[in-house]
Amino acid sequence: MDRNTDKRRDDQPALPGGALATGDGMPPRLDAPVRLLVGPANFAGQGTRWARALEERVSSTKATSFAFFRGVLDYPVDYGVPARTYRRNRRWQLNFYNHVVRNYTHVLIEAARPIFGPLHGPDASGDIPYLLSKGLQLGLIAHGSDVRIPSRHVETEPWSPFPDLEDESVELLERNATRAVELFTSYPGPVYVSTPDLLDYVPNAVWCPVAVDVDTWRSDAPVLEHEKPVVAHAPSKSAMKGSELIDPIMASLAQRGLITYRRVEGVDPADMPAVYRDADIVLDQFRVGSYGVAACEAMAAGRIVVGHIAQHVRDRVAADTGLELPIVGATPDTVEQVVLDLIANPEWGREVAARGPAFVEQVHDGRRSAEALAAFVERPSTVPADWKPSWIRPKVVMMAGNDIVVDARVLKYAQTVANWDLDVTCIGIPGRKLRAARELGKVHVVCPPIQSKVLVTGWRKRLANLKANLRPWFSTEAEYTLAYGRWQYASRELRGDRGRDRRDRERTGGESGSSGPVQRSILDRLRRAARWRWLRLHRSILQARAYFVRRAKDKVDLTDLGIGKRRERLLALYRHLPSGRWRRVMPELVDQELTLGPLLDRLQIEVIHVHDVFMLGIAARAAHRAALDGRTVKIIYDAHEYIPGVPVVAPRRVAAYADLEREFIRDADRVITVSEPLARWLQRDHKLASLPDVVLNAPVEPPADADVKGLREQLQLSEDVPLLVYGGGVNRARGVGTVVEAMPQLPDVHLAIVARANSVTKELQARAAELGVADRVHLAPFVDAEVVPLYLRSASIGLSPLLHAPNHDIAVTNKFCEYIAAGLPIITSDTPAQADLVNELDLGAVYTAGDVDGLVRAVWTVLADRDRIAKRIADDSQLLHRFSWAAQAEVIRSVYADVMGRLPDAAWAPGATIVHKLIPDPPEPPETKWRALREDEAKGSERDQNKTRARKR
Is the pLDDT of residue 21 over 90? Predict the structure, then answer.
């Protein structure tokens, strides 16, 4: 079939003879009770041959052979697409999948390759569950290298090609073949191999012989009648056939005038019959130990076929067919003598050649193949509809509006769910800590670059530029930095011009074609002077425009929450105005959708777990598209905060967040949140059918080998010094300012703020200096989330001084759970959720939020009773478990079991809820037998060299 690479063929599927597919780009619909698809390999045209043979054998069957075109050695096929379409065109992949499940009853999958490109994964194991669930019957057939495991082949075949190939390539073959053998040997349905040697690797298979058209290859040309015998060798893969071993031998014989050697490669399959008809001897392969299509074609042409066939393969052929394989045996060591013997004894060669066509007609004309495949299409399937390979795990995607590695809650979820033998991928947006992809133990993290297609284009960009140019003052530091950068470039450019003049004056004439320094005119010098003065003036203007964003505040109100009556009115207004809708306020979400949406579609997800509101719309739209494709994607929404109560953030953006949540929260199959009060508020606001589940921000169990310097040691404080600790993010609403104000009334007491430095921590340190307590207020570094309890446990009291805000009043914070895990008494402000727990569980003391004197009294009270409270916490195993991540994981497991219907057995194994590390090292690739084999060879070689050197000494 013509395989010209014209534009039409690059874009459209094709049928035999260059005809196009049906109007929808799919193969014609078959009209028969049994409708079989064979693909997607069609190696040496075998898929098509088997399809035609089966149609002839079973009258109730119609078959379509399918393959993708590679551009070389493409054989006739009923339906084909360009390789680019097969691999990259998702629309074609989905359309072909829908066409197959609607129009076929059986699929024979070749070489473990995916039928629909990478739609369901890199190999056929991803397609199988989808096809079985749609009621199709599946068979598998192996061709050769797809199941020929190199390490096993080397052990049994002395001429194996694999030791002479690059180790990296063989390692890949080893992995792929091992996985394919696992698939073939575990599949409970029909399994076939195309050559008898493959039964060594897939013993549960049935031999479905390769098929050739005997009439096409038949030849009446005499054998060994040429003046010089013609020897042909036409390898499809020279490295696997052993061409590099026999080419020099045959070239030597040709040079001596004993033969004519024809080395054939890259010939169109349609031209090969002529090549064989003109040959006397055809050299097949000398590496693998078996025979295939090329040998059958040469035998059908009545040629003498010479090759290396392992004895057990000959015995197997004889046992199955009752016929002796008419291939003259030879190895690279003996092939020269075998060819010379054939030349010397032509009658022997003619007798072997004469048996070839009859053997092929009886074994390889397609009838035996059809007989083997008939059982597949005639018998009902015994494969359960829910069967899938053991390594195909349900896929879960976790999404967050950050770069994942900075979000401890997301990491805890991801590592927990990955422990349950689920395939977990985290998807976020690029940030300071992570861009692109990273492996965190069993968890794959992806933060692809987000292209700005909406945010910085169109009317939004033009309007933003207009506003920035008309506004007299910069509104952000970033605007000033950008403008000042342009000024710096203009200044450096002018300075460069002056430098050019000086350099020209110092140069001698004639260099680089120069005739001497350029003389500046008076007008040029006046322009430059004016430009210099304008730049000085421009710098002053820029500094003036940046006054409000750069000036240091003389006095900071540490109780400014960014919330109040005015803010509440603005928020209520924006929530009712079109200007507060998320599509207007956050066009960056559209950019993120355009990048992350296709990624979600490719992953073939079962569950999307959305953390916080930012990615909720993207996840919901992915689930909507999956429904159109016939797939069900469940959504779990994890609401980290009460959106209308978020402080500090601009009211219009908060309104947009609330609008986003309101639009998509009802698409979630389950909702999880961080406290019981917030669960009730979410159910009230969104009229949810059921109360959201509660998963606290509890710490994981520290690793047994964790080695962390304690906080007290970090600050170099003795054991008798009272040490208060606040751990977590710092802004004015967190109330740390209250603690700083209380420090003058707490002599000898030290405060450690475990936080990343920001503008608020600087304000707190400045205030501590004003109060004369700077030597007792410490900014301590963060540590990894999994060791925080170990880090904090040397402190005296844990503080949670939150000021009143809607989110604070209903929060049970990370630090609250971490203090319990560290065995610390807790002092909390009277934010209800935490205050009730402290009073109920006798964990410490409660004071009125923002009340400095109340905090001082609470500190003295708890310090006086510290040992009792600490012992009470340490001895209460139920309390420690309740606020541990293991307890939260039990809730998560219940949610996932309900959403997914069933979890793998690993989810219920002992220790399934325990997580020790949030960012583990990437897993080592499993060691293959091939790598071990090569390492043993290297060690053996080294031992031999050592022995040789020892003997010489």
Answer: no
